[in-house]
Each structure stands twice: as C-alpha cells, then as structure tokens.
Batch of 2 targets.
Target 1
Amino acid sequence: MSDLLKIIKQRRSIRRFKRDAIPEAIIEKLKQALIWAPSAGNLQSRKFYFVFNQETKEWLACHHKGTRWFVAEAPLVIVGCADEKKIEKYGECGQSLFVINDVSLSIQNAMLVAADQGLGSCWVGLLDEGKVRKILKLPKHLRPIVILPIGYAKEAPEAKERSSQEAVVEVR
Ligand SMILES: Cc1cc2nc3c(=O)[nH]c(=O)nc-3n(C[C@H](O)[C@H](O)[C@H](O)COP(=O)(O)O)c2cc1C
C-alpha cells in the first residue's frame, strides 16, 4: 500500500481531543495543505479561519445545530468558508457547486496532512451558518460550510464500515 493510501485508510473522525498544543511547523503544513488543493478555474474561492481562542471555540461548539463540545476541546479549529464573490464568473453552477468543492478539497487535504502528522480531526458540517457568521464577524460574501477541530486524539475509534467497491464503482 502506498503511504498516502495508508494515511487515507487510517484517518478517522476524532471527537475527543487532548488539550496539547499543535507545533507551529505542523500548523504551517496545514496551511500549505489548504492552499495547494485544486479549485475551479484556480479561482481559489475559499477562506479559512484558524481559531485558537478558547472563548471563540466555545461559541462555535455551542452554536452547532446541537452542541458539539469536542469542538471546544481541540487546540485548533479551522472554519472553512466559501467565497461567493471570487466564484461569481461561474454563475449558478459556481455558487451551488464549485465553491463548495473548492473548500471541501482544501479541508480534505488538511485532514490527511493532520492524520499524517499524528493528529485527529472531524468534519463538522451541521453548523448554524448565521451564528458562525456572527461569531467570526464574517463579511457577507463568505459562507461558512465546515468546522474542523484538529488536535491529538483522546480516543481511537474503529474504522467505520465502507460500501464494497462493487457497490460504489461500476465499469461502463
Ligand atoms: C459533509 C460531512 C458532514 C459531516 N458533519 C458532521 C457533523 O456535523 N458532526 C459530526 O460529528 N461528524 C460529521 N461528519 C463526520 C462523519 O460522521 C464521518 O466522516 C463518517 O461517519 C465516517 O467516519 P470516519 O470519518 O471516521 O471514516 C461529517 C462528514 C462529512 C463528510
């Protein structure tokens, strides 16, 4: 198995974190992972907020649709936002699809780099958009679509079952 596939298969959604800080060199790698993801027309219609402030993390944890306290436990929380201004040239398709893809690819990169560096993370998508906008004082053109807590894992969950290759992939 290639190293990358090994990381892909070993990554888990982590929902319990140690409080230990993440070394600065790894924070830099996470930023690089976000930036180097592909994007529609290379417009890079995305923006990421790195939240280290404990109070802000607690607000984000509470204003999930239902509380997700593990968000406040993680030493770093990345909030991924779609930049609806940058994607304008692609019209409706850009707004409804490409801009979400742009953010998602970056976040997936960051999750894999985090896993490679021995860190856990969890995509949190059930967020209250309006409240996250207020907490981070986001400009109107930025739409928060994912909250990603990252930190050293305090749990080791089993792999969740996956559909078979046959069910997911068809040759035509
Ligand atoms: C688009 C998306 C939204 C998700 N939203 C949440 C969420 O709001 N809360 C949560 O605890 N996990 C969330 N997850 C994590 C999934 O539950 C998790 O990826 C899935 O159960 C598979 O487990 P694994 O990541 O450990 O392989 C989300 C994942 C994705 C891709």
Target 2
Amino acid sequence: MVFAQPVGGSRGERIFASTNLAHEGADPAANSTGTAISGELRELIQCHECGLLQRNPPLPAGCAARCGRCGATLHRSIPNSLDRTLALTCAGIVLFVVANSFPFLSFQFQGQTTEATLFTGVEELYRQGMWALSLAVFFTSILAPGLQLGLLLIVLVPLRMNRCGRGLSRLFRYVATLTPWGMMDVFMLGILVSVVKLADMSTIVPGTSLFAFAGLIFVLAAAQAALDKDIVWSRMPVPARVRRPPQSGEPVCSCRVCELVMPESKADPAPGRPSCPRCGAGLHRRKPESLQRTWALVIAAIVCYLPANLLPIMTVTSLGKTQSDTILSGVIFLFNHGLWSLALVVFVASVLVPLMKLVILVYLLVSVQMRSPRRPRDRTRLYRLTEAVGRWSMVDIYVVTILVALVRLGNLATIEAGPGAVFFAAVVIITLFAAAAFDPRLIWDHRSRAHDGACLGGVLN
Ligand SMILES: [Zn+2]
Ligand SMILES: [Zn+2]
C-alpha cells in the first residue's frame, strides 16, 4: 500500500503524487481508436470519498495507492489484470450455467422427496403472492451476477483485442452498477443456515449444482479482485474536447463512475444535465439532494424495521402443526441446538447490522447538517463500514427462499414466507439505497470551507 505524497497546492486543494502505475499491454494512447486520454490527464484523480484532487502517477504492479487525506483506496495495480479477469469470467459463466441448470439440494421427508434449483425459490415466492420478495431474490441471486458476468465478457473480449467502441464504456458502467447487487456469497451462507435448520427433521442431499455454485462464488470473488478498472477505463475513448489536461487554476470536475477528471468548462457543452463524456454517467459536484434523499430512505427503513422484527418471516406446517418464526426466534432455534456460532452470525447479520447501519447513517446525516468539523476521517471510515456490511443482512431472506423452495409437501411439511420477510427485505434494500444516496464528501465540506476555501469540484494548481 502506497500513501500519496503531497507535491504542492494552493487554496487548500493539495495534490498528492503516488508512485508508478504499471499499464499492461499496448499504451492506450496509441491504440487503434487513437482517442484515449493523455498520460498527464490520466494521472489526475479526485478521491470519491473526500473529494480531494490528487495526482496518481504509475504504481508498481501489485501496489495500491491510498488517498492521503481520508485513506480511501484510489487505485490498485494488478498484474495481468485483463487476461486473469477474462479467464475467470469464462469459468464463471460455465459455472453459472451449471449452477442454474440442476437442483442444488434435495429434501427427503417421510419417504417423499423434493428438489430445488436456484429458480425454484423465486417461483415459489411468486406463487405465494410475495412478488416483491421474489423479484428482490431473483435480481440479487440470479440476474445481477449473470448480467455482471455476461457484460464483463462482452467488454473484455474486444478490449483484449485492442478494439473498443463507445458502447463498451456504457456497458462497463453497468458492470460497476451491478457489482454491489450480486449477492451469491450471501446466498451460500443462506444455504448453510437452511441445511442446519432442516437437518433435524429430514435428510438433505446436496445436488450437482451446489458444487458449481460454491465454485462460482470463489471464481466471482477472484474475478472482482483481478479486475483493474483503471486499465479498462484508460482504454475507453474520450472525446477530443476533454483530452487536454486542465490548466493551472482551472476548475475541474470528475466522474463518480469512471473517475475521469476534466476541465469543468469542457464537461458538457450543452446546458441541462451534463453527463460524463467517457461513460455517460450523470456529472454532479455532489450527489444530487443527497441529504434529503438519504433522510427519506433512512426514515422509510426505520418504519419497516419494527414489523420486520415483530412479524413472522415464515410459517412452518409439519404433520398438521403450524408454527410461525420471526427473525429472533430463528436465532434462538440455532442457539438452542448448540449452533451458537451460526446463531451469532445470523444475529449480527440480521438484527445488529441493519440497526447499526441506521444509527451510523443518522449520525452522519446529523453531523453533516450541524456542520461538524470533528474527526472527518473516522466518520468516513464509519460510512465505508455501512457500505461493506449491509448486503450480509440478506441472509435471512435467502434462508426463507431456500426453505420455501425445499419444503413443499402439502400437509406433511410446508414452509410459507410471512409478511415479516417482505418488511425485512425492504429494510435491507432501502438501507443499501440510503448508503448509496449519502455523499461522503459532505463530511469534508465544512473542514474544506474552514481550512481550504470552498472547492466543490476541485481546482488544479
Ligand atoms: Zn480521500
Ligand atoms: Zn465517467
């Protein structure tokens, strides 16, 4: 890890220099399109968490550069990134097809057997009238990872052949948008919890696709770790008007998706809604109406949090007896069966994490509105934490989906999703949107005004 070094600055916008960026393959500036950006412009980067404009010159392979002000990772240089990501993406697509084509678990009870594929749970939830829940599970466990793999393949193959059209940059933007929504690893934890819950009453047999599914999780994680986004973006064409480095004292703005830094006057000649000339994402100095939108989403999540924990998330019918389970009763079930470590994981993921996210977001919103200059670096760390852990709360929703898919033997044994599951999924998804709506650069604004002058977009020195 390399910390950027300050090399100069005025009006408080210090510019930091880090070390060498190892570009793989041919220099993009000399590729067939002839429209990639110049080296000097490519080195400029605006930290997406504190807004500081810095220089990010080449890094040695395997090194990472961090923002000198807030500690965010600015760039990680990964050797052979394109080749490795492409190979892992191809392997991932094969595993994805296998994982979705065969049953991943069989449930045997009183001489009867049911089998479940990844899609069975989605179908069963829809049949039970839980279409919103069914849609959320379908999107996060099947559609988002599948699209992510497909789009990566479409982008990386021509890039590897040194060909890239304007459409590719938009497709790669969608990969960035979809990445946080692919939750196959959380789904795998859901399978583990479900198997433990059912082990008492029945026999559970793993199917072919369970192994493909487990392999897919590792391959997807490895593909994400191998992907050097800067290499991909540096090969995407940029219109001539923004290809010149900003002049001294000129205001600059940057794209939150592809991180292209450009002179503000050249960002978009047309009035109205400026968009990034490279990837097409909307250009804003700050996320629009960040505080209002985050407050609205946080309040909506708080409203859903109580019914999510009080109403049953599923109803179990076994040999004529019916029993309702809430999130907490599920945790107590695991604890009573001596599985305290799994009980702890589910308790932390389902009860503590959503509550912690809401408390942190309220604290950040209040501190920004009160213009607090206190410990901006620690508050940025808290924000990072909310972004990293939020998705694991989906585990209980996946447990319900898997149980509903497996246990459907009429009066003998049936599990149905309860209204608590809908509220709980709403809490998880709304808090994910709330964290995405909050702009962490607001934390640094008061500090910037007090010490650095008002530099919303950044001014090149
Ligand atoms: Zn920063
Ligand atoms: Zn962009």
